Amino acid sequence: MPKREVVVILQSYVCSLQAQVTVPAKHSCHVSIIARQMLADVPYDATATLYYTDGTTSTAYISGVYEGLSVSQDTVYIDECVPVN
Fold first, then answer.
1. How many domains is the chain partitioned into structurally?
2. How large is the average pLDDT for residues 35-48?
3. What domain range is 36 assigned to?
């Protein structure tokens, strides 16, 4: 039986959020950042191809549900700037 080589790909995702606000002199602005974290189940279909050291290949069709995918929705709210007394 030929030896199988397994390749594992790990993915990493980093998210950042920036907001730039120009504030007039002697004014104050209120800025809010609302972050929502959700979990989603994502169905998938894939074709896996196995490459053996003797040069042969085999193909497998797989499907399933990736459970617990973390999803973030971030929103920046900038209120109207008001004069400071």
1. 1
2. 90
3. 27-83
